[in-house]
Amino acid sequence: MRLRSIALAVITIFAALLAADAAWAVTIGFAQVGTESDWRTAFSADMKAEAARRGITLLFADADNDVERQRTQVLGFVAAHVDAVVLAPVVVTGWTETLQKVHAAGIPVFISDRAVDSDPSLFVARIAADFNLEGRLAGAWLAQATLGACSIVELQGSVGSEPTIQRHKGFLAVISQFPNMRILHSVGGDFTNDGGRQAMEGLIHSTDGLKDVCAVWSHNDNMLLGAIAAMHAAGLHPGHDQLMVSVDGVPDIFRAMLAGDSSMSVELKSDIGKYIFDVVQGYLGGRRDYPKWVLIPSALHTPADAAAVLASRGL
Ligand code: AHR
Predict the structure, then answer these.
(1) 198-234: pLDDT as tens digits
(2) What stretch(es) of the chain map to CATH 3.40.50.2300?
(3) What does the angle CA 198 – CA 247 – CA 204 come to, to the nearest 5 degrees?
(4) How many angstroms does the Cα of residue 14 sit away from the middle of ligand 1?
(5) 217 CA from centroid of ligand 1 (Å)
(6) Fewer CB within 10 Å, N- or C-terminus of the chain?
(7) Using one digit for the tens of pLDDT, what is the confidence trace for 88-122?
(8) CB of residue 91 inside a 6 A radius of ligand 1
(9) Nearest to 273 by CA among 123, 60, 74
(10) CA 163 to ligand 1: nearest atom
(11) 126 Cβ inside 6 Å of ligand 1
């Protein structure tokens, strides 16, 4: 009897040690979009730092905004026998075949940031903010600031990506409730500073120096920062003659607010490694009750709290 209890205790300790090993010694493949924006580079840095804090071996792949390359990188993680894949997809479509292969290899997939339109059974959960809400928040702020009368130029992000699709839809859903609000022109800027600058140079030319334009709505801060530079170069006054509205909440947009050049930004949190790895490690540890969408909250900032936000980030 005594021998049996000792044997049972030894087995229990062994099982606990194995479980602990499974929880800590994990290798995770992270397929990242690229380096197109300050938000993206902050997100990558946070994932690396958070993985290191947790003792996770992180295989990091940068797709440089190329979806073909990203698919190959994800399959590379399968060949490397990772314990889990975290995918921030460049675009929404075309993922089913790749995800089926990862699924067939028995490797769980976690979508972060942007979305895919594949069958949700092919991934465990998406951990991300609500891009449609960000668009609606921007539209609602602009509607109240202009009493529902404003002609807008829009700088769109990368074609086919979830934030571009949803921020446009959400913004339009709100402003279309106001008969005197409309988007005059939508131009692509690929989420980059340079893309925003070039798009704005074209707009300044085609609208006779933004004549009759009341606001610039940009799908991210970096494009807006590029647009602000183009407006200054053309002798215009962003933030004064046009309201300047965007998404991300990167440090330079708060500096632009303090300089009077930017009016509002909806913050997209970049320090989200903790949310992502909580779900991945929880799942690998046996937890199965995650919702398909683990929502990360958004917040709206204006020049009124710009200095406080920078100070809270130690900047
Ligand atoms: O997917 C999130 C978007 O991608 C960010 O808002 C933008 O800056 C980034 O490039």
Answers:
(1) 999 999 999 999 999 999 999 999 999 999 999 999 9
(2) 2-128+270-284, 131-268+302-312
(3) 25
(4) 45
(5) 15
(6) N
(7) 999 999 999 999 999 999 999 999 999 999 999 99
(8) no
(9) 60
(10) 1
(11) no
